[in-house]
Automatic annotation (TrEMBL):
Domain notes: Consists of three domains: the N-terminal catalytic domain, the editing domain and the C-terminal anticodon-binding domain.
A GO cellular-component term linked to this record: cytosol
Matches recorded under NCBIfam families: PRK09194.1, proS_fam_II
Compartments where found: Cytoplasm
SUBUNIT field: Homodimer.
The keyword Ribosomal protein is annotated on this UniProt entry: no
Domain of life: Bacteria
Role: Catalyzes the attachment of proline to tRNA(Pro) in a two-step reaction: proline is first activated by ATP to form Pro-AMP and then transferred to the acceptor end of tRNA(Pro). As ProRS can inadvertently accommodate and process non-cognate amino acids such as alanine and cysteine, to avoid such errors it has two additional distinct editing activities against alanine. One activity is designated as 'pretransfer' editing and involves the tRNA(Pro)-independent hydrolysis of activated Ala-AMP.
Source species: Phycicoccus duodecadis
Listed name of the protein: Proline--tRNA ligase
Length: 589
């Protein structure tokens, strides 16, 4: 049935919503696709629901094509399975928890590994039942700290999640590859520009992991890629190549010096340059200094643990990289009260003396991999106004380990070939990873193998942001006038606009719509009698159906106008051949 603008549940807005930060959010609200209910919680209006359903259909078709079977779990889940996997606590504040009338604990599912694992355990017991891939397209709930950009980052959102179950690693590799191929087809059909990057496995544990990022300037994820060898990774997953040990025998013994009033890296470098010029004439730079950054980790059980990170002074700690490393702990700032509780820490002059092997502070100390064996540094002497020079890693101090928390910068060496990396931003649209046996072990999912022995099943987990895809496609497909949908996702195939008060125009527009629909096209018909042509054209541009057919003045001469919303091109169609021409235009001839 055609959608008619005269009765469609829709009000387009001329003004931008006040809370919209990005174009997709602005336009989806203005064009009447979504309405905000509460932060991160949105209603899908008829037009929006059409697009959402089209995304779902594409995802469903490609999942079915690899033999995955659809099922549907509840969103309201009991605590116990999540308790057993450890995630009731690990998920922290991101989970919506609630109680039933008897005081029992429940949650609204943020992701469903536990439920899938238990379902297979419930029904299957033999290797003969494997491999198995099952999936659902379902509403998820996450109490995101920063819901953002409409449905791009919601607190209620639609995800397709699938899980594979195999007897061994070779089987898992195969299931993973099947999903990866399906994802390539899904994202090609959705019309994304995307990259596939190496990723962190995150809260879900496991090993091999890749993300499908839609390239977008205002995306929340930063990734790097190597123009030389094709390496690509989310910055969270970048491993800094560990330098070979340097021979430090020529470096003089470490010596503490007065460096008055140098609490910042810049002030320290300026002071070094004037008070300790290097004999070989090289200028001091921030990269010669070792800075020690303190943060407070908050573990799932609520315990707070200070953490010191030593890194070259020319680099900042990257919050997301750090977060990914310490997960499930959350990272908070190390505040004045924390310094007060650790009097050994001389703010602005903290060094490995107090953090390192001496353990005078009792604080865990982790180093950037660049602070490697034999490298010499200028760093805090743990006394206000003093720094140590020629302090050699491994010789003069050690730490409790290394951490990948320093920012990754364009030009940094590619971990795979050494060439300079490029950086760009994207939106995470899909995530696939090999979970391995983490959930099967936690929930005791075993099957009998061909020798009658019990074996733990190995799993993969694969997600697509279905509702996010709507925003993401809108983000990549709009202009100053409105949305410009790719054909596969538009709320209709053709937008027929009837203009003027002429009865013949209205009658013909109805007839054209009927014929197009009879031939399988979905039509949005602007049959409003009161709206001016100007208003109708503006709405058509805002709504963004890629093919617009205007029935108006030309009808008397036997012509219609076909407008391509994407290119702005217009051409005349003869009424006699219009239906076929339009069907050819939309690829449904
Ligand atoms: P992000 O890093 O963006 O928070 P995530 O890594 O936590 O996402 P996954 O658990 O991998 O997300 O979920 C699978 C997919 O679900 C993601 O790739 C993304 O497309 C989508 N998704 C995740 N969180 C949200 C959200 N809050 N709103 C909409 N879609 C989401
Ligand atoms: Mg992810």
């Amino acid at each position: 049935m055609a959608m008619r603008m005269s009765s469609l549940f829709l009000r387009t807005l001329r003004e931008d919503p006040a809370d919209a930060e990005v174009p997709s959010h602005r336009l989806l609200v203005r064009a009447g696709y979504i309405r905000r209910v509460s932060p991160g919680i949105y209603t899908w209006l008829p037009l929006g629901l059409k697009v959402l359903r089209r995304v779902e259909t594409i995802v469903r078709e490609e999942m079915d094509a690899i033999g995955a079977q659809e099922l549907l779990f509840p969103a309201l889940l009991p605590r116990e399975p999540y308790e057993a996997s450890g995630r009731w606590d690990e998920y922290g504040e991101n989970v919506f928890r609630l109680k039933d009338r008897k005081g029992g604990d429940y949650l609204l599912g943020p992701t469903h590994e536990e439920m899938f694992t238990l379902a297979v355990k419930d029904l299957y017991s033999s290797y003969k039942d494997l491999p198995l891939s099952i999936y659902q397209i379902q509403t998820k709930y996450r109490d995101e700290a920063r819901p953002r950009a409409g449905v791009l980052r919601g607190r209620e959102f639609v995800m397709k999640d699938s899980y594979s179950f195999d007897l061994d690693d070779a089987g898992l590799d195969k299931s993973y590859q099947l999903h990866r191929d399906a994802y390539v087809r899904i994202f090609d059909r959705l019309g994304f520009h995307y990259v596939i990057v190496q990723a962190m496995a995150g809260a879900m544990g496991g090993s091999k992991s890749e993300e499908f990022l839609a390239t977008a300037e205002n995306g929340e994820d930063t990734y790097v890629r190597c123009p030389n060898c094709g390496y690509a990774a989310n910055v969270e997953a970048v491993r800094v190549p560990v330098p070979d040990a340097v021979d430090a025998t020529a470096v003089p013994a470490a010596h503490a010096e007065d460096t008055p009033d140098t609490p910042t890296i810049d002030s320290l470098v300026a002071h070094l340059e004037s008070a300790f010029p290097r004999s070989d004439g090289r200028a001091w730079t921030a990269a010669d200094t070792l800075k020690n950054v303190l943060v407070m980790l908050v573990h799932p059980d609520g315990t707070r643990e200070p953490l010191a990170i030593g890194l070259p002074g020319d680099r900042e700690v990257d919050e997301k990289r750090l977060g990914a490393q310490v997960e499930p702990a959350a990272v908070e700032a190390f505040v004045e009260a924390d310094f007060a509780a650790h009097p050994a820490l001389a703010k602005g002059y903290i060094g490995p003396g107090v953090l390192g092997s001496e353990k005078a502070s009792g604080i865990r100390y982790l180093l950037d991999p660049r602070v490697s064996e034999g490298t010499a540094w200028v760093t805090g002497a743990d006394t206000p106004g003093r720094h140590v020079l020629d302090l050699v890693a491994g010789r003069d101090f050690t730490a409790d380990g290394t951490i990948e928390a320093a920012e990754v910068r364009p030009g940094d060496a590619c971990p795979s070939c050494g060439h300079g990396l490029e950086a760009a931003r994207g939106i995470e649209m899909g995530h696939i990873f090999q979970l391995g046996t983490k959930y099967a072990e936690a929930l005791d999912l075993k099957v009998l193998d061909e020798h009658g022995k019990l074996r733990t099943v190995t799993m993969g987990s694969y997600g697509v942001g279905v509702s996010r895809a709507v925003a993401c496609v809108a983000e990549g497909n709009h202009d100053e006038l409105g949305l410009v949908w790719p054909r596969a996702l538009a709320p209709a195939d053709v937008h027929v606009v009837a203009t003027g008060k002429d009865e013949a125009v209205a009658t013909y527009a109805e007839e054209l719509t009927r014929e197009l629909e009879a031939r399988g096209a979905q039509v949005l018909l602007d049959d409003r009698r009161q709206a001016s042509p100007g208003v109708k054209f503006k709405d058509a541009e805002l709504i963004g159906v890629p093919t617009i057919v205007v029935v108006g003045r030309g009808l008397a001469d036997g012509t219609l106008e076909l407008k391509d919303r994407r290119t702005g091109e217009r051409r005349e169609l003869a009424v006699a051949t219009a239906v076929d021409d339009i069907l050819r235009e939309i690829g449904q001839a």
